[in-house]
């Protein structure tokens, strides 16, 4: 993360009150083998997740007091590389914080994500689908989490939920994982150069956007389990 | 042409036995597509003898509920029919590859569409099941896979499991396969037509669109506007009012030219105690603590620990002068050196403070 010195007095960010999140879609329980599965669609970006657990774990990987969480992210084409590994780590850290792994010692929870299509904000789509899959599997969680991406373009405007084209043209891309209880930031992943003020602005904007995402979670789960 | 498998299904990821299954499937698919010459490989040539297009099919197995073969063959052939490769022009020796924006990409030349149909046999051929699911596969005696195209030509046939089949049984299976393949080919054609039409009209296409909205487990909403204006103002206020925490940076101490120290080292918490010296150790450690309070900045507790040595030394190499021993501190204290070291400790700081 490169922080440029704060230019006091200069308001570089225009107030874009009409920021939009792209179209959202989610389907739960679409795969029969995993304990929980979900597919999450943000615009054109689609990720399918299967979650297995708590299940048996190899003795070398077992942990005496908590469940071992493994995350595997498969790209659309080719073998997983360094970028996938780094995303796996982000997702893993967030899930470790949210899932109550201490309730299942000496077991393993495996999360397998498959990228179907990447049209921008891939990491936040992965986080959202991981949370929905964990809900579908019925794993105990301390809080729900969601991922929001925003991009800062060359003029200093903050774009919410950018497409791949917008991400390419921007000077910084920031992804935050936000928890549902207190809207705090659980994980942040940034790429590019930006000022501390822009960083704070992005966090605030993402926290606001997270509210709509949590409402979406509520609505989709409500639709599934309601009797009407 | 290459077929590449990518397993998302966790149970298959783990089992080493299943990798054998994947190899078998891979081989069958390759035979089915490559040997049946469904794709015109000659049209993939760019400069004969030098450049050629290579096609790679990546198959992602999302869920294994039986009969991966059929699903894989349908997916692969549909993907190949749907695929468009970049246009290429060869003028003499020069080869120009046009990007997607410059010229419309060109579809592959596909002669026919081979589709696999699997049959599982139970009880020495008495019972036959088409399209077995996972549980049925686990208990079956043998498997027969027939790859056929809609012209009723058999492209590949494979029998595994070691069951003996009668001629009539195989013929019957091929008839069933013929019927199935015609249905499936129609379905694929319809889907491809649909996609072509939507792309021409400029509508939305892709996997995202195929999310079924009628199902109770699926939910879709339109893009949601997020009103962020008040939030931005509050953030500006907060950032204006907060003062960044003052950082405490200890000032560096220059020991010799090229050697400086920032901060203090950590106290040595390793205690190597021997029973007969424990009393003396206590006394000595108390004395050390006193010294710590008097000359806090000039003591470094430990850095270099030699393997079996009982002394810890900090030696600062001075580039101009010869080696100077700065401090000696005994961990297992010997009486002789203890007093000497104490004296040295008291002397050294005064010498160095210039």
From TrEMBL, chain A:
Molecular function in Gene Ontology: DNA binding; RNA binding
Gene3D superfamilies for this protein: GHMP Kinase, N-terminal domain
Pfam families to which the protein is assigned, alphabetical: RNase_PH (PF01138), RNase_PH_C (PF03725)
Keyword Iron: no
Keyword line: Cytoplasm, DNA-binding, Exosome, Nucleus, Phosphoprotein, rRNA processing
Main localization (coarse): cytoplasm
Subcellular location: Cytoplasm; Nucleus, Nucleolus
GO cellular component: cytoplasmic exosome (RNase complex); nuclear exosome (RNase complex); nucleolus
Exoribonuclease phosphorolytic domain segment(s): 21-139, 144-202
A single BP term in Gene Ontology: rRNA processing
PANTHER family cross-referenced by the UniProt entry: EXOSOME COMPLEX COMPONENT, EXOSOME COMPLEX COMPONENT RRP46
Family, as annotated: Belongs to the RNase PH family.
Oligomer status and interactors: Homodimer. Component of the RNA exosome core complex (Exo-9), composed of EXOSC1, EXOSC2, EXOSC3, EXOSC4, EXOSC5, EXOSC6, EXOSC7, EXOSC8 and EXOSC9; within the complex interacts with EXOSC3, EXOSC8, and EXOSC9. The catalytically inactive RNA exosome core complex (Exo-9) associates with the catalytic subunit EXOSC10/RRP6. Exo-9 may associate with DIS3 to form the nucleolar exosome complex, or DIS3L to form the cytoplasmic exosome complex.
Protein name per Swiss-Prot or TrEMBL: Exosome complex component RRP46
Species per Swiss-Prot/TrEMBL record: Erpetoichthys calabaricus (Rope fish)
Gene name tied to this protein: EXOSC5
């Amino acid at each position: 993360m490169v922080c440029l010195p704060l230019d006091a007095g200069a308001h570089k960010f225009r107030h874009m009150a009409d920021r939009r999140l792209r179209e959202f879609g989610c389907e739960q329980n679409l795969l029969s083998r995993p304990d929980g599965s979900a597919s999450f669609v943000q615009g054109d970006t689609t990720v399918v997740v299967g979650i297995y657990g708590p299940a048996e774990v190899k003795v070398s990987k077992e942990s005496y007091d908590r469940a071992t969480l493994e995350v595997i992210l498969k790209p659309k084409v080719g073998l997983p590389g360094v970028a996938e590994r780094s995303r796996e780590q982000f997702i893993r850290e967030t899930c470790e914080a949210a899932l109550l792994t201490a309730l299942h010692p000496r077991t393993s929870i495996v999360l397998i994500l498959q990228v179907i299509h990447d049209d921008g904000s891939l990491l936040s789509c992965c986080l959202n689908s991981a949370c929905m899959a964990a809900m579908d599997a019925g794993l105990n969680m301390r809080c729900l989490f969601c991922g929001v991406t925003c991009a800062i373009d060359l003029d200093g405007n903050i774009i919410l939920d950018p497409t791949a084209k917008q991400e390419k043209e921007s000077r910084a891309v920031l992804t935050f994982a936000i928890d549902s209880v207190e809207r705090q930031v659980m994980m942040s992943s940034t790429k590019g150069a930006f000022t501390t003020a822009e960083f704070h602005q992005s966090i605030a904007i993402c926290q606001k956007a997270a509210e709509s995402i949590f409402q979406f979670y509520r609505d989709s789960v409500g639709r599934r389990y309601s009797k009407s | 042409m290459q077929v590449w498998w990518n397993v998302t299904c966790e149970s298959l990821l783990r089992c080493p036995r299943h990798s054998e299954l994947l190899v078998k499937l891979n081989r069958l698919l390759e035979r089915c597509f490559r040997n049946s010459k469904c794709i015109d490989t000659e049209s993939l040539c760019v400069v004969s003898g030098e450049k050629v297009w290579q096609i790679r099919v990546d198959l992602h197995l999302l869920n294994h509920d039986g009969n991966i073969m059929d699903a894989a063959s349908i997916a692969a052939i549909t993907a190949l029919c749907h695929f468009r490769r970049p246009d290429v022009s060869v003028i003499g020796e020069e080869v120009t590859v046009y990007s997607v924006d410059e010229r419309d990409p060109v579809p592959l030349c596909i002669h026919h569409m081979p589709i696999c149909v699997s049959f599982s046999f139970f009880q020495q051929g008495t019972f036959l099941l088409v399209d077995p699911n996972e549980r049925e596969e686990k208990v079956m005696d043998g498997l027969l896979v027939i790859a056929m195209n809609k012209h009723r030509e058999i492209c590949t046939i494979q029998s595994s499991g070691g069951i003996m089949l009668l001629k009539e049984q195989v013929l019957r299976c091929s008839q069933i396969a013929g019927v199935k393949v015609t249905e499936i080919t129609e379905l694929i054609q319809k889907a491809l037509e649909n996609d072509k039409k939507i792309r021409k009209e400029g509508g939305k296409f892709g996997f995202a669109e195929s999310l079924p909205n009628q199902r109770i487990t699926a939910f879709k909403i339109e893009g949601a506007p997020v009103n962020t204006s008040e939030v931005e103002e509050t953030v500006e206020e907060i950032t204006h009012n907060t003062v960044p925490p003052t950082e405490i940076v200890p000032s560096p101490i220059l020991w010799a030219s090229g050697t400086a120290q920032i901060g203090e080292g950590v106290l040595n918490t390793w205690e190597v105690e021997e029973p007969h010296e424990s009393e003396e150790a206590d006394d000595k450690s108390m004395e050390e603590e006193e010294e710590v309070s008097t000359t806090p900045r000039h003591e470094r507790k430990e850095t270099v620990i030699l393997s079996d040595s009982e002394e810890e030394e900090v030696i600062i190499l001075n580039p101009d002068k010869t080696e100077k021993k700065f401090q000696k501190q005994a961990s297992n204290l010997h009486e002789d050196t203890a007093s000497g070291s104490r004296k040295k400790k008291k002397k050294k700081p005064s010498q160095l403070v210039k």
